[in-house]
Write a structure and sequence with these properties.
Bound molecules: flavin mononucleotide
Number of strands: 9
Radius of gyration: 20 Å
Distance between the termini: 46 Å
Oligomer: single chain
CATH topology of the largest domain: TIM Barrel
Helix content: 40-55%
CATH architecture of the largest domain: Alpha-Beta Barrel
Structural class: alpha/beta
Mean pLDDT: 97
Shape: globular
Largest sheet: 8 strands, parallel, barrel
Order of helices and strands: EHEEHHEHEHHEHEHEHEHHHHH
Length: about 325
């Protein structure tokens, strides 16, 4: 819960997705916290331009957390001091201890930090000590089913001064397979004296409300369930407050998609914005009548105006038909 006793509804960090444009759309529908794509602490330390670009924040945004990954306490601390502390547009720092991909874990980063609790705690102590903003940690249940240490590590993390933990209810070995284990998330809420955001497999407002009720978590973080439907946050608030979820007709959907594309192009430049928005646009239109023809048309366009025209034309012909 936040200060108003409402649950925290966070957009979970997703590399390749939670850029400025997607975060702005989610926040506009009531996501109370949004998290950037993961950024290499080493990249920031070495002033790598690509890493800095991932920290772009839109003037309309507030409550943005920058997620960093790494395993070297001193480098992490210096990266935060140098690149995050001076920024008033960044609200918080999140430390990645959940990324399962081989190129990250082979360096002892991401979920691999959960295997080395001592190092994990040194990383967190260093970042908390360096940061002038709240610091949070994102965990999985553990490395694999033989090492489910989120609760023991969580209890130690509670002594470090972090603000909260986001817990993805899978192990590293599961990657994204199987189901998130919400019983373990509930156990974490019970055992660890910190606000816990439960995360994993929430795709509908009903699931969100049920997970919040059953786990008693301070909030939830939603990743894939918000792609192509950032209004899920509004639908969750509506459901929590006993209202019918806001209606989303075709014009509304197209308007949101167009807005996200425009912000993406403003922030990244047209060429990159159009290409990077493609996978999200395809999710917006998934399930619409004649979606496969529409998808082909969208993929053929290379300019923002071209994509906007395809969306508008589809809307006009499907509203009047
Ligand atoms: C494409 C993709 C990219 C992701 N990137 C990150 C990341 O950069 N940092 C992170 O902590 N988790 C990352 N995750 C994990 C999500 O934050 C989240 O924990 C996971 O998707 C489960 O939640 P969901 O079922 O709501 O998507 C990523 C997940 C996906 C699908």
């Amino acid at each position: 819960m936040n200060a108003t006793n409402k649950p925290i509804l966070a957009l979970a960090p997703m590399a390749g997705y939670t850029d400025v444009a997607f975060r702005v759309m989610c926040a506009s529908f009531g996501a109370t916290e949004t998290v950037s794509e993961m950024v290499s602490a080493r990249g920031l330390y070495h002033e790598d331009k690509k890493s800095y670009r991932l920290m772009e924040v839109h003037p309309q945004e507030s409550g943005v957390s920058i997620q960093i990954f790494g395993s070297e306490p001193e480098i992490m601390a210096q990266a935060v001091e140098k690149s995050i502390n001076p920024r008033n547009d960044i609200a918080a720092v999140d430390i990645n201890m959940g990324c399962p991909v081989p190129k990250i874990v082979k360096n002892g980063e991401g979920a691999a930090l959960m295997k080395n609790e001592d190092l994990a705690l040194r990383v967190v102590d260093a970042v908390v000590g360096a940061s002038n903003k709240p610091v949070s940690v994102k965990l999985r249940l553990g490395w694999d089913f033989d090492s489910l240490n989120c609760i023991s590590l969580g209890k130690k993390l509670a002594q470090t001064g972090i603000s909260h933990i986001t817990l993805h209810g899978r192990t590293r070995s599961q990657l994204y397979t199987g189901h998130a284990n919400w019983d373990m998330i509930a156990e974490m809420v019970e055992e660890v004296p910190l606000p816990i955001l439960g995360n994993g497999d929430i795709t509908t407002p009903q699931e969100a409300v049920q997970r919040l009720k059953e786990s008693k978590a301070a909030g939830i973080a939603i990743g894939r369930g918000a792609v192509g439907k950032p209004w899920i946050f509004k639908h969750i608030t509506d459901t929590l407050e006993g209202r019918e979820p806001m209606e989303c007709n075709l014009s509304f959907l197209m308007e949101v998609a167009r807005k996200q594309l425009q912000i993406a192009c403003e922030s990244k430049g047209e060429k990159v914005g159009v290409v990077q928005m493609r996978k999200q646009l395809l999710t917006y239109v998934k399930g619409l009548p004649h979606a496969s023809a529409l998808k082909q048309e969208l993929l053929a366009e290379t300019t923002m105006d071209g994509v906007l025209a395809v969306l508008t034309q589809y809307e006009d012909s499907n509203i009047s038909s």
